[in-house]
């Protein structure tokens, strides 16, 4: 299992790309126009303590994933019951992201192509990555992150001549309740979805610092989100940014450098897809590890392909159209909150009690 361990950098960049995932094409903050940057910043601030909680679980139970921790803390029955819930969440999240990208690909580039072939190709790619271990996902993230960041920096710099700074004003135009709602949405999608990496904690080296891992990833993600949001806002304006399903893609299409960018839109879309593939692969790997733990299998690899097929099947029946997909974003934070906050909080409290109890027992003996 040693060769399946991911390095600190690989794990951190995997978390960053995981957070980009579908957010980089669907937009990060909805409903508060130019005040979206406030929601993005507040969402990250709220996510920071949660990320520290995740890191604490890494530290309490080094080289153990969430499924092993839950069975250690809550016993076999309680642990397996929670495992079922997290397997469902990882599977469902993978299906959600897969559908995001099949819709994006069909609308932006392949309008005459059915979504099923797109789903099949992405599923096979993510199955290959998940079967190859977290280390393979980390290596892929290390290669892809530079392409994704290059697109963000390049398009942002190219947009400077066309910026309309008036769209940034006025600040705090929306009510406190509106900004709070947007903050909750950003916190849940995508920051708190990082809970999936608790299921992959066994791939993290014991010697590395988990607090640095999560906080460095959070800071880098926050910076990129702010840059992307401001770029989209000042180029599209409040109204157009709110109406577009995929504002980042639309933004790159209207930036003009002698028609140059028009010829590399396919490359830009590919970079978006790379981030989505990393996110789906991480969800698929987490779900497969959960199933292996549930049935006491020696290894997760035999169940990766069946779980990939399940993800694709769920993806195909999730929504009737793109409007339904975006409408679900309103309800998603409430659905995901137990998986992202309540259950990890309960595991952390139980873990602290377990470790303290067994430390005292060891000292007494």
Question: Any overview of this molecule?
Answer:
Helix content is 75%, strand content 0%. By secondary structure, the protein is mainly alpha-helical. The chain has a single domain (2-350), classed as Amino acid/polyamine transporter I. α4 packs antiparallel against α10. The longest helix is centred in the N-terminal third of the chain and has 43 residues, at 66-108. It is globular, with a radius of gyration of 21 Å.
Indicate the low-confidence ranges by residue numbers: none
The biggest sheet amounts to:
none
User: Under the CATH scheme, which class?
Assistant: Mainly Alpha
Distance between the termini: 33 Å
Q: Taking Cα atoms only, what radius of gyration do you get, to the nearest Å?
A: 21 Å
Report the helical percentage: over 70%
Q: So, CATH architecture?
A: Up-down Bundle
Number of strands: 0
Fraction of residues in β-strands: under 5%
SSE-based structural type: mainly alpha
Domains (count): 1
Number of helices: 12
Along the chain, the helix and strand elements come as: HHHHHHHHHHHH
Mean of the pLDDT scores?
Answer: 87
CATH topology: Amino acid/polyamine transporter I
CATH homologous superfamily descriptor = Amino acid/polyamine transporter I
């Amino acid at each position: 299992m040693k060769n399946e361990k991911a390095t600190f950098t690989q794990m951190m960049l995997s978390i960053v790309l995981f957070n980009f995932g579908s957010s980089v094409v669907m937009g990060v903050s909805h409903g508060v126009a130019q005040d979206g940057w406030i929601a993005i910043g507040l969402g990250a601030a709220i996510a920071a303590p949660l990320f520290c909680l995740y890191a604490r679980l890494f530290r309490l139970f080094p080289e153990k994933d969430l499924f092993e921790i839950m069975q250690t803390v809550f016993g076999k029955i309680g642990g397996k019951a929670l495992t079922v819930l997290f397997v469902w969440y990882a599977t469902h999240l993978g299906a959600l992201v897969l559908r995001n990208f099949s819709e994006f690909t069909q609308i932006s580039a392949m309008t005459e192509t059915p979504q099923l072939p797109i789903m099949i190709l992405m599923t096979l790619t993510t199955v290959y990555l998940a079967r190859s271990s977290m280390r393979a996902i980390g290596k892929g993230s290390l290669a892809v992150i530079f392409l994704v960041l290059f697109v963000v920096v390049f398009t942002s710099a190219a947009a400077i001549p066309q910026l309309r700074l008036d769209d940034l004003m006025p600040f705090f135009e929306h009510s406190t309740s509106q900004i709070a709602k947007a903050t909750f949405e950003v916190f849940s999608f995508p920051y708190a979805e990082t809970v999936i990496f608790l299921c992959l904690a066994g791939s993290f080296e014991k010697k590395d610092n988990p607090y640095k891992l999560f906080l460095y990833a959070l800071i880098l993600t926050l910076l990129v989100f702010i840059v992307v949001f401001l770029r989209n806002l000042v180029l599209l304006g409040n109204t157009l940014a709110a109406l577009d399903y995929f504002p980042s893609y639309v933004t790159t299409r209207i930036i003009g450098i002698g028609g140059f960018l028009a010829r590399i839109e396919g490359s830009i879309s590919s970079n978006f897809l790379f981030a989505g593939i990393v996110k789906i692969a991480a969800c698929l790997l987490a779900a497969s590890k959960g199933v292996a733990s549930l049935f006491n299998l020696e290894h997760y690899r035999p169940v990766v392909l069946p779980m990939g097929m399940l993800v694709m099947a769920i993806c195909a029946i999730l929504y009737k159209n793109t409007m339904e997909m975006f409408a679900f974003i309103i309800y998603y934070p409430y659905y995901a909150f137990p998986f992202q906050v309540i259950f990890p909080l309960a595991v952390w409290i139980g873990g602290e009690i377990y470790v303290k109890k067994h430390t005292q027992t060891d000292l007494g003996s």
